[in-house]
Amino acid sequence: MKPFNPFPLLLLLLVLAALLACGSPSGRGPSEASPGPVEGPPWRSISSPDNSVSAVLATTVLRPGSQRLAFILFTSRGILAVPTVRVTPVSLVDNQPRAAVTAGSHPWPLGTKGSYSTHIDFDRPGKWRLDIVALDSDVSPRTAQIEVEVRDDYKVKDIGMAAPASKNKTLQDTPNLSKLTSGSNPNPDLYQTTIAQALKSGKPTLVVFASPAYCVSPTCGPEVETMQELKAKYPGRANFIHVEIYDNPHEVQGDLSRARLSPILREWGITTVPHWNNESWAFIISANGQIKARFEGYATLDELDSALFPELL
């Protein structure tokens, strides 16, 4: 008999604990919490019939129309990373499935995690179920389900809208990087320009709202580092701006009860998202100031590059 290996169980417990922490900020979250009581999160994961696969949704703001969907799959052995999975959206209003789509696996930097992303066309608001099948040739197909709510009343800024001319803090007015970011090795170039200035520059802009050190969600990824990779690929051709989730990162020191959310988040509607805690958001803005792409949760280099590159032509 093989000796008991506790690591898979510990990993699963850590992921579930992080997910619960993300949904329960009271007592540990920032002083400006998401407004208003809500009736539970806008999604829930349903155990697969054999309990072999569970899903954690990274995108919770889903409107009618084509929407990016990102999620993580994990088993008792850890993160699942088969090359592709099939996602079938089923409207719970008419109980009819829509066309299935394929979601590809995206490994994260350092190989610690990986997520899946795809686009789904939700043709009506209301409750939906996502039937996910992992297409793994080595074993029989494994399944998971997620129920989500598609709404048309979210306040977070969306594709096609004008980007707010926000005046985020920069090194020009706050000449101390520790007051601008919780990152351990920040790039000063990301803190030189306000969003308002970028909108007048005649260049496209990538804005990332993230807390490199203090994000607690299991879907958190190194978004700022990924943005820096993209910046190195297109030097001088676009604006790259990081806005720290917290207005006082130098005072947090690991205790989120000390944290204050950046007021810039309200201008973008991020704090209105039900149960949002501190997951990252990324927006790509065209040279004329219109939002062209929006990413909730970690977006990979390929995803950001595919959205930014057309704006550089």
Describe the structure.
By secondary structure, the protein is of the alpha+beta class. It has two domains: 7-150, Immunoglobulin-like, CATH 2.60.40; 177-312, Glutaredoxin, CATH 3.40.30. Helices cover 17% and strands 28% of the residues. It contains six helices and 14 strands. The protein has helices at 7-23, 195-199, 223-233, 249-252, 264-267, 301-312, and strands spanning 43-46, 54-57, 65-75, 78-79, 84-91, 96-97, 101-107, 114-122, 126-134, 142-150, 205-210, 239-244, 281-285, 291-296. Strands 1, 2, 3, 4, 5, 6, 7, 8, 9 and 10 form a ten-stranded antiparallel beta sheet that branches. Strand 2 and strand 3 form a beta hairpin. The termini are far apart. Residues 1-29 and 31-39 have low confidence and may be disordered.
What's the helix count? 6
Could you tell me the CATH topology label of the largest domain.
Immunoglobulin-like
Q: How much helix, percentage-wise, in residues?
A: 10-25%
- Name the overall outline: globular
Going by CATH, the homologous superfamily of the largest domain would be Macroglobulin (MG2) domain
Mean pLDDT: 85
Rg value: 20 Å
Number of beta strands? 14
State the secondary-structure class: alpha+beta
**Architecture (CATH level 2) name of the largest domain:** Sandwich
Give the biggest beta sheet.
10 strands, antiparallel
- End-to-end distance, in Å? 61 Å
What is the H/E order? HEEEEEEEEEEHEHEHHEEH
CATH class of the largest domain: Mainly Beta
Question: Which residues sit in consecutive blocks of at least 5 with pLDDT less than 50?
Answer: 1-29, 31-39
Strand content: 25-35%
